[in-house]
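[09:14] KT: can someone run the structure on this one? pasting the chain below
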Amino acid sequence: MIAKNVSTAIAEFVVMAHIGMSLDASQQAEFVGQITRHQQALRAYIVSLMPGMDGVQDVLQETNLVLWEKREKFKPATHFQAWAFAIARYEVKAHRRKAIALGLATLDDDLLEELSERGEQRPEELEHRLRSLDKCLGKLQDKERQLIEHRYFSGATLEAFSAECGRPVDSLRVSLFRIRAALRKCINKELTRGALDS
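[09:31] RB: done, structure tokens below
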């Protein structure tokens, strides 16, 4: 499920990447490869900076655009993920400013900085968590997975999904609570298992 959404984003990015090329072909391929390899971690980092906020996919796409526009400024011997996270942080801040201008509630600046520092300090842990999440999502029943996909990837409201599936909104909220708790437990078990294996 996550892989499908990441694949879609990468495909869109690769098409976009062929516009205005100034690096040689091998440098471009390496840069696109870097973006591709870090897409899940980048999305997870953005989600961590925008808990409960809409627009994660928009911020990810904007971040990818800025990464591509600034590709010549990236120094290959440096840490790509740290550079990409810094750009993502600025894009989250820009999204936050737009949300404030529209009168929407957002995170406090200090909290946003704390979250971004925590996300940048442990990129390997983030990778392990993403792999664990992918495994745990694969263990969900189809109806549970559909609810999770709708809530976190479709951008549509829970009310719309309620009308679509014929379940009351409150029932869906309770299900989401239970599914998230089960996913949290499963992820922690996977992480513990991974720590024991290493």
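[09:33] KT: thanks! Confidence is low (pLDDT under 50) at residues 15-21.
[09:34] RB: yep, looked fine to me
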